[in-house]
Amino acid sequence: MDYVQRYLVLISILWIFMSRKALSQFFGTTIDALRSRNQCDCMEYWQCIGSGGKPYSYCSYSSKVCCFIDPNSVSVGILPRPTKSSSCGTKGPNSDRDGLSEPGEWAWHAAVLEKPQDLYVCGGSLVDEHWIITAAHCVDEYRSPNTLKVRLGEHDVSSTAEPFKYEEFDVSRIVVYPTFNNKTLMHDIALLRLTKPAKKRTNINIVCMPSEGITNNELILSPRCYVTGWGKTADSENHFTY
């Protein structure tokens, strides 16, 4: 290859690089404008497709895409009986970070908040499209359901830059187990009814619950157990882990 040929190849490579850079800057500017209008969110391609979204273009120089997600999703529906083919309790992608979860990994986990300051009260789980199960000692003192709300699909409570949006629901009813004892914490169970049905998304789903009449011997016990939520992992900690 002579000098002229090498020169032409070099010019071609530079032209391709500058074209890609210009396109990336163009799409980056366009995407920033779209994101400012809440029309799309930057996330990994597989997360966009898994959410039923449509990728628009790459977000600047990252591997993430600007994803359009249809806000009109199908309803979660009535709680299914636990079977091998059941869609309830399906855990999301595993986290490779110690103590931290991935977005959508625990899609049934809920945050119970006190209005209007959004103070964190307790965690809970979505058991069907209208009901959250939580601890009775967390909500026993709240006489009016209007003082509470439930947030589903939340991941990092300290950040709004998340691949999946959370949803918030008002509470219409608080049901504390009749024989709950606040001193001994016996029968520490309560239910919260949502004012509108939840919708199934990548980061919102229902947890599996035993069907009526099932015996302890019929329950499938696992040697591994996970605790999820936002809070301290030890009494000695002076900060919260999300």
From TrEMBL:
Signal in keyword set: yes
InterPro entries attached to this UniProt entry: Peptidase_S1_PA (IPR009003), Peptidase_S1_PA_chymotrypsin (IPR043504), Peptidase_S1A (IPR001314), Trypsin_dom (IPR001254), TRYPSIN_HIS (IPR018114)
SMART domains reported for this sequence: Tryp_SPc
GO biological process, one term: proteolysis
Key words, A-Z: Disulfide bond, Glycoprotein, Hydrolase, Protease, Signal
Bilayer-crossing regions: none
GO molecular function annotations of the record: serine-type endopeptidase activity
Gene3D superfamilies in the record: Trypsin-like serine proteases
Pfam families cross-referenced by the UniProt entry: Trypsin
Domain Peptidase S1 per the UniProt entry, residue ranges: 90-242
Annotated signal sequence range: 1-24
Homology family: Belongs to the peptidase S1 family. CLIP subfamily.
Record-given protein name: Chymotrypsin-like protease CTRL-1
Organism, as annotated: Caerostris extrusa
